[in-house]
């Protein structure tokens, strides 16, 4: 039986976390044991305590002292998956934008030999529901821009719903990953692309958060715009 870890970073997700965890765990089968790792940044709404009170042996938590951003939360989770010898590790949001029903489909693709499977909003047109048109435009054109600058053949470079093969992930120098917001997603995919690891995109329907508040900020958007150039230049000079 393979060990699967789903990393869910949280900041004030008390309205979602107790609903999403059981849905993830319910995907366990004879072939796969699903586990959840919540990476919580001392959410003032008590998200961490709710997770601890579950006392579920398949639910783990990493508690950080203050809000430090999505990128470093995932890096901490990735290291946890490597140290604890999981087979596959997922990135997933707590807010139900990423429907847990898709989780098994990622594994079907992993078993075909892919190193990274990305849940994409931008193959087969656009599959995003309930986003303000401004935000959709921003995300869509940010992706086209990223593809042009980096040359990556990935349609949804900022996607945050993904599954990694842990042995391959261990070959990436995670301490060198510096970006934090959406650019974190771009950076991980670019590193896989440059290493010629096999990336597969599967279509998902992305739905705006069900409950709770958005943490998206302008800073994160600006970061993404210059990071793609930084990544491109680093790859040219061999310092990626
Ligand atoms: N640990 C940690 N988690 C975070 C941080 N920022 C966001 N998150 C979590 O990361 C996931 C994605 O964040 P969201 O706020 O949904 O960001 P988004 O999807 O870009 O924006 P909305 O869906 O509009 O809210 C959620 O589970 C958040 O709780 C952070 O600084 N630290
Ligand atoms: Mg969200």
Count of all domains = 1
Query: Whole-number radius of gyration?
Result: 17 Å
> Looking across the biggest beta sheet, what order are the strands in?
3-2-1-4-7-5-8
CATH superfamily: Spore Coat Polysaccharide Biosynthesis Protein SpsA, Chain A
Order of helices and strands: EHEHEHEHEEHEHHEEH
Subunit arrangement of the protein: single chain
Helix content percent band: 25-40%
Overview of the structural elements:
The structure is a single chain. The protein starts with a strand and ends with a helix. Helix 5 runs parallel beside helix 8 (218-237). It is of the alpha/beta class and 240 residues long. It is globular, with a radius of gyration of 17 Å. The protein has eight helices and nine strands. It is 39% helix and 19% strand. The strands form two sheets. The chain has a seven-stranded mixed beta sheet with strand order 3-2-1-4-7-5-8, sandwiched between helices. Strands 6-9 form a two-stranded parallel sheet. The mean pLDDT is 95. It has a single domain, classed as Spore Coat Polysaccharide Biosynthesis Protein SpsA, Chain A (Alpha-Beta Complex), CATH 3.90.550.10. The protein has helices spanning 17-25, 47-53, 70-83, 103-110, 133-150, 166-169, 182-194, 218-237; strands at residues 2-10, 32-40, 59-63, 88-91, 116-120, 128-129, 162-165, 199-203, 206-207. Bound molecules: guanosine-5'-triphosphate (GTP) and magnesium ion (MG). Residues 9-11, 13, 39-41, 67-70, 73, 93-95, 97, 209, 214-216 line the site of guanosine-5'-triphosphate.
């Amino acid at each position: 039986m393979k060990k699967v870890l789903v990393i869910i970073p949280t900041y004030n997700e008390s309205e979602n976390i107790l609903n999403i965890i059981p849905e993830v765990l319910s995907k366990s089968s004879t072939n796969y044991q699903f586990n959840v790792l919540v990476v919580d940044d001392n959410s003032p709404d008590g998200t961490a305590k709710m997770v601890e009170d579950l006392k579920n042996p398949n639910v783990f938590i990493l508690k950080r002292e203050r809000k430090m951003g999505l990128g470093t939360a995932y890096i901490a989770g990735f290291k946890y998956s490597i140290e604890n010898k999981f087979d596959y590790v997922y990135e997933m949001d707590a807010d139900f934008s990423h429907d847990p029903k898709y989780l098994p489909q990622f594994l079907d693709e992993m078993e075909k030999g892919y190193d990274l499977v990305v849940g994409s909003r931008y193959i087969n047109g656009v599959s995003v529901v309930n986003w303000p048109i401004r935000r959709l435009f921003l995300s869509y054109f940010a992706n086209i821009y990223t593809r042009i600058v980096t040359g990556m053949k990935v349609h949804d470079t900022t996607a945050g719903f993904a599954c990694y093969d842990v042995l391959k992930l261990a070959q990436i120098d995670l301490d060198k990953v510096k970006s934090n917001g959406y650019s974190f997603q771009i950076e991980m995919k670019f590193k896989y692309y440059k290493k010629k690891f096999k990336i597969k995109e599967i279509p998902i329907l992305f739905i705006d958060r069900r409950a709770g508040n958005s943490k998206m900020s302008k800073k994160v958007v600006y970061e993404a715009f210059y990071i793609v150039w930084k990544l491109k230049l680093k790859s040219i000079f061999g310092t990626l």
